[in-house]
Every structure is written in C-alpha cells, then in structure tokens.
C-alpha cells in the first residue's frame, strides 16, 4: 500500500472530483511524477486506493501516451513528426538524433542518459521543428542545437 | 484593428492578476452576476454570433440554451484545452499569457447555464500553461472570484484544472468526458448529447478555451460590437495559427472573414524564400487541403464550408512548391493511424491500411492497384464510426488524393513493385 504521506496527497487530489475513480488521471500523474514510471505494483495500489479493478488502471495507463511503465533516460527527447514540423525539417532532426544517440525511437541509451520518442503534434508549430526535452519545449531546432543539448547532458 | 482575445499577449507579465485587473478585469463577471439574469447573458451571447472555436463552429449561445434548466441534476461546464489538432497552438497562448480572461469567461458561462462547477481540461504536454492557469485559479479563489458566494453574489463556482495525458482523441468532446471520469478516451455515441447526459451523466456544456475567452468582452462591450468585428453569422475575431512554409509563423488575431491570402501574405510574411505556394490547410490538419487558386476564400465557418473545407480550429499550414504531396499525405495518414483510439474497426484498421498504402506509394514499392485500393479504404472510414475522427481522416487524406492525384499516379508509374 501507499505510505500515509502519499495517501494524504492523493486524498487532496481525489477530493476535487465527484467520484473517487474519476481522479485516475491526476493520481497517475502524481505517482509517475514521484516514481518516474507506473510500475505494476503502483497499478495494484492505485486500483485498491480508487476502488477500481487493476485491469482498468492498466487499460488507462496503456491508452495515454504520457504514461509509461519503463524508466526513460535522464534526458528524454520527444520530437514532433507531424506536418508543420516535417515541413521545416523535422525528419532531419529525428535522423540526426538517431545517429548521435545510436538508438531508435522507443529506446534508451545503454548508460541510461538519453531516450528518444517520436511524437505527434505538440501544439507549438510556430517554433517548428520542435521537441520536448524532458518537459521543456525547445523549438527552431537544428543539428547544432541538438548537439549542444547532447553535450550538456552527457 | 481592435484586438480582443490577444489584447494582453504582448504586455509584460500579461498573465498576472494585477495586469488583468488593470484593464477592467472581472468587471464583466460582476456585471453578469449582479445586473443580468442567466437568460439575458445567453441572449447576449446568441446575438453576438460567437461560434465555437474548437472546430465545429456551433453557435455558442444556442449550445448553452440546450441545458435543461428544470433538471434537478448538477450542471457542468467543461472547458476544452486539449488543443491537439495539428497546426493549432492558440489556446496555449490564452492559458499562458492571459489565464484570468479564461477564468472570467468561466464565471459568466457558469452563471448563464446554472453550473456550479467547471473543469478545464489542459493537454498533458502543456506544463507551463497548466501552471499559469493553476496560479490564476488560486488567485481568483483568494480574491473571492471563485468559491462560495462569488463576488458577493449568492452564486458558488468551483474550478478544477485537469491535466490530460497525451491522446489526440480526448479533444473530441465525449472522449474528453470519458477521460475526465477517469477512463480511456473512447468517444460516446450521440444522442444523448452532452447538454442532456454529459459529465457524470449530468447536463454539460463543452466549449473551447478561446470560445470562453470571448465571453467577458462580449458582456463588457455588447453583442453588437462583437458581431460587427467579424462577418455575417461569424461574430468576432479569431486567433489564426500560421505555420509551415511562411516567413513569420505565429498566432494572428484577425476578423472572421479575413481572406486566406491576406493572412499568408500580409500577416505571416508570405511564403518562405519567395517560393510559390502549392497547398494550404486552412483549419487544422483535418480540414481538406486547398490549392493556390482557392486562397481568396474568406476565413469564416460558412465561406470555408462552401468551398468544401472547414474553418476548424484556425490552424493554417502552408506548403510551398517544393513539397511532395504524397509525402505530406503520408504524414497526415500516419497521424491518424497513430491517434485512432481503436474503438471502431473501420477507423482502427483503415487508418493503418491507409498509412501503409501511401507509404508504399511514396517509397516506390506500390502495386498498380494501390491507388484504387487507397481510395476505397479512405472512403469507407468516414460515416462508419462513432465520432468525427473517422470523417476527418476521410476528408483530409481524401483531399490530397483528389487534388494531387497526378503526383500519386506518377509515383506509381515511376517505380512499381513487380509483384
Ligand atoms: C477528433 C477530434 C478532436 C478534437 N480536438 C479538439 C481540441 O483539441 N480542442 C477543442 O477545443 N475541440 C476539439 N474538438 C472539438 C470538440 O469535440 C468540441 O466540438 C468543442 O470542444 C466544442 O467547443 P466549441 O463549441 O467552443 O468549439 C475535437 C473534435 C474531434 C472530432
């Protein structure tokens, strides 16, 4: 089960919703923020806490792109591949990242420092090509910018 | 030109409570709560010709009037800030640069529809906009503008900010309701419509962030003023998001009815490198693509509908003469394949088939009948699904094929796989 302190935080979240079970997304966000992923144990605990089935929790975790069940790299690249970014050279950015990191989308470097995802429109087409580095939006990307980010986070 | 929703965007600390209060902030909410009846607020919004800016363009005041006031159930306002339609990035600016404008709109809307609770659904990736809104909500509570007996009236309003988790489909209003209830985002069958059976089975109004941000200015300055800013049946300005091959991508607030040509060439600085225009998406990726001979169209819901496309979310994506349209179609199809929620088989399976089919054509491994197959696949998705995602796929991908058919044919002719 979750610790008492944890439960206190979760109670604050669920109190805002009409039904406890409706708070599943914010609860998952909280747990992922604290633990870096949603583990199977966490799924179990959340199900017990919200009085819902584990399979329901798992279904939700696997439906939404932002929840993940494996640890990401310390620096996670989420690079946009949709139209506006592609028109401004997004594909070259993705290729460059694959080459520099030696991984393909969905993978983490062996030292755990970097991971890469290719994502759909991030809602920042005005600064295309764009990505999220961890949660931060970084736009007007070019190879040099990518190299600098990699060097800084090595 | 008078700016409305973006009037504070360029100001220093535009998001701050003080900055918002300085410009008659929360005066409209006070006016509605103390001097107007809910019915007269709805009437004013109806007369303003404000239309839903999330994509469908439904008249906002009319939508509000569908809430069954006699129902004993609680009523909800849900604000859609999921902003996932590719090419759209305007709600982000409102949330981040002027969150109090949204909160004031929420107060007035709640009062109009008799709702004591509003949920704002913010897309999961929008961390900064989310934080800006959370801070603003806290400030509004402290000032007595939210909570119990709002602004000294007898009306209570609670606002909950809900963070999405990365799923385009959750922008569809009924999928959004499912998501708010703690489920995966599977759209619901309509009817019943959310106005009658919405969040937690209760009457619910769902409106886009920008739509709600227009409400306070309408109450402040009047329906007539707002209606006159725009064109016939399309009141007000709207935030156009311009991206792709233009010199100055960005958000431009312009009157409804401004021509697409003016937006591209006068406001967004024209096509990159002085290149020729080849194609333009006028209202988010789901809006059928236009060719250069069509850009004198007025950008409003009715004019765009009349030429077979839609105003949608206001996302304009410009493509110049160097763009390979089969490639562009492939990227659009990939988007739908990745974001289909999987509930309806025509969309779940068809979106993947369409993507792989176009990919074969693009990569030169197509079979001679692939183009015919593609048209068949694409046309059998729209109309056969629970939600309009399937229709969007059909309209969007179908428009690339019909408008740039020769590019598809040439690719197949150039290199056809022998089997
Ligand atoms: C697949 C799909 C995605 C949508 N995404 C959004 C979105 O991200 N934001 C939004 O406001 N509306 C979106 N909509 C439209 C909503 O369903 C709904 O019409 C809108 O939020 C109503 O608000 P409005 O009347 O103020 O426009 C989407 C619709 C569909 C079919």
Please tell me about this protein's structure.
- The complex is a heterodimer of chains A (154) and B (419).
- Chain A is α+β, with helices and mostly antiparallel strands and 154 residues long.
- Chain A folds into 2 domains: 60 residues, Arc Repressor Mutant, subunit A; 78 residues, Glutaredoxin.
- Chain A has 7 helices and 4 strands, in the order H-H-H-H-E-H-H-E-E-E-H.
- A 4-stranded mixed sheet of chain A has the order 2-1-3-4, covered by helices on one side.
- In chain A, helix 3 packs across helix 4.
- Chain A is elongated.
- In chain B, helix 2 packs across helix 10, helix 5 crosses helix 6 and helix 15 packs antiparallel against helix 16.
- In chain B, the strands form 2 sheets. In chain B, strands 3-2-1-4 form a 4-stranded parallel sheet, sandwiched between helices. Chain B has a 4-stranded mixed sheet with strand order 6-5-8-7, with helices on one face.
- Chain B starts with 16 loop residues before the first helix and ends in a 5-residue tail after the last helix.
- Chain B folds into 3 domains: 212 residues, 3-Layer(aba) Sandwich (Rossmann fold), CATH 3.40.50.11540; 84 residues, Roll (Ubiquitin-like (UB roll)); 90 residues, de novo design (two linked rop proteins) (Up-down Bundle), CATH 1.20.1440.
- Chain B is built from 18 helices and 8 strands.
- The site of flavin mononucleotide (FMN) has 22 residues of chain B, from strand 4.
Summarize the helices and strands and which ones pair or pack:
The complex is a heterodimer of chains A (154) and B (419).
Chain A lengths: L3 H11 L9 H12 L4 H11 L3 H10 L11 E6 L2 H5 L2 H12 L12 E6 L11 E3 L2 E3 L4 H11 L1
Parallel strand pairs in A: 1-2
Antiparallel strand pairs in A: 1-3, 3-4
Chain B lengths: L16 H6 L4 H9 L2 H10 L12 H6 L10 E6 L8 H8 L1 H15 L3 E6 L4 H16 L15 E6 L9 H8 L23 E5 H5 L1 H7 L1 H7 L7 E8 L5 E6 L4 H8 L9 E5 L19 H6 L8 E6 L4 H15 L5 H19 L6 H10 L9 H15 L1 H10 L5
Parallel strand pairs in B: 1-2, 1-4, 2-3, 5-8
Antiparallel strand pairs in B: 5-6, 7-8
Bound molecules: flavin mononucleotide (FMN).
Flavin mononucleotide (FMN) binds next to strand 4 of chain B.
């Amino acid at each position: 089960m979750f610790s008492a302190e944890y439960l206190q935080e979760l109670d604050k979240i669920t109190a805002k919703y009409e039904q406890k079970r409706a708070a599943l997304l914010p609860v998952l966000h909280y747990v992922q923020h604290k633990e870096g992923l949603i583990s199977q144990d966490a799924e179990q605990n959340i199900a017990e806490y919200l009085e819902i089935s584990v399979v329901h929790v798992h279904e939700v975790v696997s439906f939404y792109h932002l929840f993940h069940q494996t640890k990401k790299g310390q620096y996670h690249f989420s690079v946009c591949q949709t139209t506006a970014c592609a028109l401004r050279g997004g594909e070259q950015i993705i290729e460059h990242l694959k080459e520099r990191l030696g991984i393909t989308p969905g993978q983490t470097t062996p030292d755990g420092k970097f991971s890469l995802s290719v994502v759909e429109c991030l809602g920042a087409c005005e600064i295309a090509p764009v990505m999220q580095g961890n949660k931060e939006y970084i736009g007007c990307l070019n190879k040099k910018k990518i190299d600098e980010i990699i060097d800084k986070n090595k | 030109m008078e700016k409305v929703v973006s009037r504070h965007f360029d100001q220093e600390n535009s998001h701050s409570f003080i900055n918002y209060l300085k410009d008659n902030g929360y005066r409209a909410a006070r006016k509605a709560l103390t001097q107007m009846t809910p019915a007269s607020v709805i009437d004013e919004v109806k007369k303003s010709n404000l239309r839903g800016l999330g994509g469908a363009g439904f008249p906002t005041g009319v939508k509000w009037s569908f809430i069954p006031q006699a129902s004993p159930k609680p009523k909800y306002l849900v604000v859609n800030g999921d902003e996932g339609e590719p090419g759209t990035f305007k709600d982000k600016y409102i949330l981040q640069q002027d969150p109090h404008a949204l909160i004031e709109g929420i107060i007035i809307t709640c009062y109009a529809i008799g709702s004591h609770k509003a949920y704002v659904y913010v897309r999961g990736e929008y961390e900064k906009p989310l934080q800006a809104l959370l801070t603003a909500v806290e400030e509004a509570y402290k000032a007595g503008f939210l909570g119990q007996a709002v602004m000294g009236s007898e009306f209570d309003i609670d606002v909950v900010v809900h963070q999405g988790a990365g799923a385009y489909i959750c922008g569809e209003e009924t999928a959004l309701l499912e998501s708010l209830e703690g489920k995966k985002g599977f759209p619901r069958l309509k009817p019943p419509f959310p106005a009658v059976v919405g969040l937690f089975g209760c009457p619910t109004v769902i409106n886009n962030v920008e739509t709600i941000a227009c409400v306070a200015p309408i109450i402040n300055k009047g329906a007539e003023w707002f209606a006159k800013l725009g064109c016939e049946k399309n009141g007000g300005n709207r935030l156009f998001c311009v991206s792709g091959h233009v010199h100055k991508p960005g958000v431009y607030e312009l009157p409804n009815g401004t021509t697409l040509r003016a937006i591209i060439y006068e406001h967004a600085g024209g096509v990159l490198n002085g290149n020729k225009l080849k194609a333009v998406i006028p209202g988010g990726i789901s809006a059928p693509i236009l060719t250069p001979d069509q850009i004198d169209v007025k950008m409003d819901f009715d004019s765009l509908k009349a030429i077979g496309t839609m105003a949608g979310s206001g996302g304009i994506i410009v493509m110049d003469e160097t763009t390979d349209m089969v490639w562009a179609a492939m990227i659009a199809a990939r988007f739908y394949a990745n974001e289909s929620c999987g509930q309806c088989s025509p969309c779940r399976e068809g979106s993947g088939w369409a993507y792989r089919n176009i990919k074969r054509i693009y990569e030169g491994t197509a079979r001679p009948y692939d183009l015919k197959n593609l048209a068949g696949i694409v046309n059998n998705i729209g109309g056969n699904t629970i939600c309009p995602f399937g229709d969007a796929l059909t309209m969007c991908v179908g428009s690339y094929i019909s408008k740039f058919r020769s590019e598809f044919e040439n690719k197949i002719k150039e290199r056809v796989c022998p089997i």
